[in-house]
Design brief:
The structure holds two protein chains of two kinds. Helix content of chain A is 40%, strand content 9%. By secondary structure, chain A is α/β, with parallel strands linked by helices. By secondary structure, chain B is of the alpha/beta class. Chain B contains 14 helices and 18 strands. In chain B, α6 crosses α13. Classes of the chains: A alpha/beta, B alpha/beta. Chains A and B meet through α1, α2, α3, α6 and α7 of A and α2 of B. Bound molecules: flavin-adenine dinucleotide. Chain B: Pfam families: DAO.
Chain lengths: 265, 501
C-alpha cells in the first residue's frame, strides 16, 4: 500500500515543482507560457500563447495524470471524499453540548465554531467569531435565551447543521450570503422556522436552483428575502416574478441579474 | 525475444516524464494533447537507464496480463471475439437496465470488497429506453404511504438524493443535477377517508417523515387557488417530497456503475437453463428446488444468441418481469398497465408553489417547468384497463375522466389546453400493488426487484441498496424488507397500502 503512494508522492512533488517554476516564469515574461523552465528564451522565439485553452493548466495536468495512473485517480477521489467528510463533521449534531447546556447554547456554539455570528433575543450585543475562528465565550451566560438573529455568511453550513438550530423558535433573521454548501435541500428544511422567520438572505449561494426556491412557500411570515446573484437559476426574470407572486407579503430583493432579461420577461 | 526488441526500439524514442508505453492503451487520443503540453518541458535530464527499466516493467506487466487472460474464468479465447456479444460468464446477471437494474448494479459494485471482485452484467434489450417505465414516469417522490416499508424506502431514497454527488459522482465528470423540485405532495381526503389519512399521518410521523395535516380552511389559506368543496382533510409533505428528472437519475446510476466496472450488454433474455433437485420436507412433501445455470441472451436484430453462465440472476425487468418469470414457469403477478400523462398549458394556472396534488377522486396534477405548463393523469378503473399492446394515448380519457375533476378542484385550470401527452407502463402488481423484493423460495438463485406499481422510481436507490445487501451479505441490514418478499404471494397474504385513492 505504501509503496505506490510513495512513488506517487514523489511524482506529484516533482510535477508541482515544475508547475510552480513554470508559473513564476510566465509571470515574468507573459507570453512565454510553453517554454521549458531551463531555457529562458526571449518572447519572440516562443510559440504563440494559446488563446483557446479554457481549463487551467493544473486541471488539465491532473486530468492527464488521472488518465495515466490509477493512483492519481484514487488520490483525487480520496481528497474529494475527505472534503465532504470534513464538511459533514463540522456540521455534526452538537448532542453533548445540547444535553449539558441546553439547545440554545448548543446552537450558539455551533454557529460560532463555523465562524458565524449571532444575537440573542432581547440583547443588542452580537457574538461574532473573528477571521481566525476566535470568539467571546461570554455567550455561555445566556443560557436558555433563544436566538433572534443569525449570520452565517460565507460559512460551510449545510442541511445537516440545521439539526442544531431546530429548537430556535424565535429566529427572525437568517443570513446565508455566499454559503457554498447551502442547496435546495437546505432551503426545503427551513420550514422549521416557518412561524418566526422574517428576513432571509440567500444571495450569492452557488448551489441554489429554482427547485429549492419553491420550498420557500412554507415561510409564511417572511417579510424580506434577498435572492441576488444566484448563478444556479436559469431564467431569473420569470423566477423572480413567480417568487413575488408566491410570497405576496414579502419584499424580494434581486440584484445582480442581467437587467435586459428582466425587462423582457 | 520480441519483447526485448521492443524495449530496445522504445529506448531510442524521445521520452517524456511518462514513457510512451506506460499509458493505458485504451485512451490513445488523450495522449497527443498531454504530450504536446507536457513533454517538452519535462524531458530535460532523465537518465536513459531509468526508462529502460520502466519499459521492461511495462512489458513484463503486459506478459503477466496475457498469462492472466489465458487462465480459466476469463473471456480470452484464441478465436477472434465479437465484443458486442455478452460475456460468457458473470457472477450476477441483472435482467432489465431500468433505474432499478442499474441501481442494484451500482450498489453491488459499491459493496464489493475488491475492485473487480464481483462481475456484474446488466442485460437490457432496448438501449433507447423507448418503452421503459423509468423515463416515462412522472418523477415524483413522496413519503406519504401507509406501509412502514414504503415510508422507510422513501426516506432512505431522499437521503440518498440529498447526497447524490457523494454517491454517484464520477471523477472528472460533471456533478449530477437531479433538478429536484421541492414542492411537496398534497393529498386531499373527503369525509369518508379522512380517518385513514389521519392514521397514515401518525404512521408517517412516527417514522420521521415531515408531513402536516391541514383542515379545509387552512388549505384554502395556504393554497387559495384550490376549491376546497368536499375536502375534509389534507395532508401535505413539508420536506423530502417533490419531483425530479428520472432520466438524470437513471443515467447517473448507469454512469457510476459502469465506472465501477459493471458491464452492460444489449440483448433480450429469452430463456434460462437450470438444474432441478427434489427435496423432501419434514412432513414428507416433495419440493422441487431449481438452480439457474445460465441465462440465454438473444442479441438484437440477429439470430445470434449467447448464454451467460452465472451464479445469481436478478429479475428487474419492470413491467415485463411477469413475462420473464413465466419462461421459468413461475407465476409472478406483475403485468404492464398503461397509464396516460397529459401535458397541459394554462397561463393563468397556479404558480411556483404548486405541489404534486392528488385528489381523492384519483386525479393528480403537478407543475412542469415555469411557463404555465402542468402534467396530469389518473388511473382507470380496473374493468376499463386499456389495451397494453402499444403506447397510444386515448385523448377521450382525458375529456371524460381527468378534466372534470381537475377543473372543479382547480378552477383556474378550466381554460387549459392539452399540448401533448404520452403513455407508459406501470409495473403493476395485481396481487397487492406493492413491490416484490427478494429471493424466490424454490429457485435458489433468482432474486426479484419488481412490481413497484407506480412508485419504483422514487424507491430505486434504497431498493438497490437492499438488494445488494441481500445478495452480498445474505440479509437486509439497513431496512428490513422481508415482508415484501415472494413468500407473501405464495401464502396469499397481501401487503396492501391503505390509501385514500
Ligand atoms: C405514467 C407513469 C408514471 C409514474 N410515476 C411515478 C412517480 O411519480 N414516482 C415513482 O416513483 N414512480 C413512478 N412510476 C413508476 C416507475 O416508473 C417504475 O416503477 C420504475 O421506473 C420501475 O423501474 P424498472 O427499472 O423496474 O423498470 P423499467 O424502467 O421499465 O426497466 C425495465 C427494463 O427492462 C428491460 N427488459 C424487460 N424485459 C427484458 C428482457 N427479457 N431482457 C432484457 N431486458 C428486458 C426493458 O427494456 C426496460 O428497459 C410511474 C410509471 C408510469 C408508467
Amino acid at each position: 500500500m505504501s509503496a505506490p503512494f510513495m512513488s506517487l508522492y514523489r511524482c506529484c512533488q516533482r510535477s508541482a515543482l515544475l508547475v510552480v517554476s513554470r508559473r513564476s516564469l510566465s509571470s515574468v515574461s507573459p507570453p512565454s507560457s510553453v517554454s521549458p523552465p531551463s531555457s529562458v528564451s526571449p518572447p519572440s522565439s516562443v510559440s504563440p500563447p494559446s488563446s483557446v485553452s479554457p481549463p487551467p493548466l493544473h486541471t488539465r495536468f491532473l486530468l492527464y495524470l488521472t488518465q495515466c495512473f490509477y493512483d492519481v485517480e484514487m488520490l483525487q477521489s480520496w481528497t474529494f471524499l475527505q472534503r465532504w467528510k470534513r464538511i459533514q463533521k463540522r456540521n455534526t449534531y452538537y448532542g453533548y453540548t445540547q444535553k449539558n447546556y441546553g439547545s440554545d447554547i448548543a446552537a450558539a456554539y455551533y454557529i460560532l465554531s463555523l465562524k458565524g455570528g449571532l444575537r440573542f433575543v432581547g440583547q443588542s450585543e452580537w457574538f461574532i467569531a473573528d477571521r481566525r475562528g476566535k470568539f467571546n465565550w461570554a455567550f455561555l451566560d445566556h443560557k436558555d435565551t433563544p436566538l433572534e438573529e443569525v449570520n452565517m455568511n460565507y460559512t460551510d453550513i449545510n442541511y445537516r447543521g440545521l439539526d442544531n438550530l431546530e429548537e430556535q423558535k424565535s429566529l427572525r433573521t437568517l443570513s446565508l450570503r455566499g454559503c457554498p454548501e447551502v442547496n435546495d435541500w437546505f432551503l426545503a428544511r427551513l420550514h422549521m422556522f416557518e412561524d418566526s422567520l422574517e428576513e432571509l438572505d440567500i444571495s450569492h449561494c452557488p448551489r441554489i436552483t429554482t427547485g429549492g426556491l419553491a420550498a420557500l412557500r412554507n415561510l409564511k411570515g417572511l417579510k424580506r428575502l434577498d435572492v441576488s446573484s444566484l448563478p444556479g437559476i436559469s431564467s431569473p426574470g420569470v423566477v423572480i416574478i413567480l417568487l413575488e407572486e408566491m410570497l405576496p407579503k414579502c419584499d424580494v430583493t434581486a440584484n445582480g441579474y442581467d437587467h435586459t432579461l428582466r425587462e423582457e420577461s | 525475444m520480441s519483447t526485448w526488441r521492443r524495449v530496445h526500439v522504445n529506448l531510442r524514442k524521445a521520452h517524456g516524464l511518462f514513457p510512451v508505453s506506460s499509458r493505458r492503451v485504451t485512451q490513445p487520443n488523450t495522449w497527443k494533447y498531454g504530450h504536446l503540453t507536457l513533454c517538452k518541458s519535462l524531458s530535460t535530464s532523465r537518465p536513459l537507464r531509468d526508462d529502460f527499466f520502466k519499459d521492461l516493467e511495462v512489458q513484463l506487466a503486459a506478459m503477466r496480463q496475457k498469462a492472466l487472460d489465458a487462465l480459466p474464468g476469463s473471456d480470452w479465447s484464441p478465436l477472434k471475439m465479437d465484443r458486442s456479444l455478452p460475456p460468457e460468464r458473470a457472477d450476477v446477471v441483472i435482467v432489465g437496465g431500468g433505474v432499478i437494474g442499474w441501481s442494484i448494479a451500482y450498489w453491488i459494485k459499491q459493496k464489493e470488497r475488491l475492485r473487480g471482485g464481483v462481475r456484474v452484467v446488466v442485460v437490457e434489450k432496448d438501449p433507447t429506453y423507448s418503452q421503459a417505465s423509468t423515463v416515462l414516469s412522472a418523477g415524483g417522490i413522496r413519503q406519504q404511504f401507509s406501509l412502514p416499508e414504503n415510508i422507510c424506502l422513501s426516506i432512505a431514497s431522499a437521503q440518498f438524493m440529498k447526497n447524490i454527488n457523494e454517491h454517484l459522482h464520477v471523477l472528472n465528470e460533471d456533478p449530477v443535477d437531479l433538478q429536484f423540485n421541492h414542492s411537496g405532495y398534497l393529498f386531499l381526503a373527503n369525509e369518508e377517508v379522512a380517518h385513514i389519512m389521519e392514521e397514515n399521518y401518525k404512521t408517517q410521523r412516527s417514522f420521521g417523515a415531515h408531513v402536516s395535516l391541514l383542515s379545509a380552511t387552512q388549505l384554502k389559506e395556504k393554497f387559495p387557488w384550490i376549491n376546497t368543496d368536499g375536502v375534509a382533510l389534507a395532508s401535505y409533505g413539508l420536506e423530502n417530497e417533490g419531483w425530479f428528472d428520472p432520466w438524470t437519475l437513471l443515467q447517473a446510476f448507469k454512469r457510476k456503475a459502469l465506472s465501477l466496472g459493471a458491464e452492460q450488454s444489449i440483448g433480450e433474455v429469452t430463456d434460462f437453463k437450470y438444474t432441478s433437485n427434489i427435496a423432501t420436507t419434514a412432513e414428507g412433501d416433495q419440493v422441487v428446488q431449481r438452480r439457474i445455470k445460465s441465462v440465454k441472451v438473444q442479441v438484437n436484430n440477429s439470430l445470434e444468441y449467447q448464454p451467460i453462465e452465472c451464479a445469481i440472476v436478478v429479475n428487474a425487468a419492470g413491467a415485463l418481469s411477469g413475462k420473464l418469470a413465466a419462461t421459468l414457469g413461475i407465476l409472478l403477478p406483475v403485468e404492464p398497465r398503461k397509464r396516460y400523462i397529459y401535458v397541459l398549458n394554462c397561463p393563468d394556472g397556479p404558480g411556483l408553489d404548486t405541489p404534486f396534488l392528488i385528489d381523492y377522486s384519483g386525479v393528480w396534477f403537478r407543475r412542469e417547468g415555469l411557463g404555465g405548463n402542468y402534467i396530469a393523469g389518473t388511473s382507470p378503473e380496473e374493468a376499463l384497463e386499456p389495451d397494453t399492446s402499444d403506447l397510444e394515448v386515448d385523448h377521450q380519457f382525458f375529456e371524460e375522466k381527468v378534466w372534470p375533476h381537475l377543473a372543479s378542484r382547480v378552477p383556474a385550470l378550466e381554460k387549459l389546453k392539452v399540448t401533448s401527452a404520452w403513455a407508459g407502463f406501470y409495473d403493476y402488481n395485481t396481487f397487492d400493488q406493492n413491490a416484490v423484493i427478494g429471493l424466490h423460495p424454490s429457485i435458489n438463485n433468482m432474486f426479484f426487484a419488481t412490481g413497484f406499481s407506480g412508485h419504483g422510481l422514487q424507491h430505486s436507490p434504497a431498493v438497490g441498496r437492499a438488494m445488494a445487501e441481500l445478495i452480498m451479505e445474505g440479509n437486509f441490514t439497513s431496512i428490513d424488507l422481508s415482508n415484501l418478499g415472494f413468500r407473501r404471494i405464495i401464502q396469499k397474504e397481501p401487503m396492501l397500502e391503505r390509501n385514500i385513492v
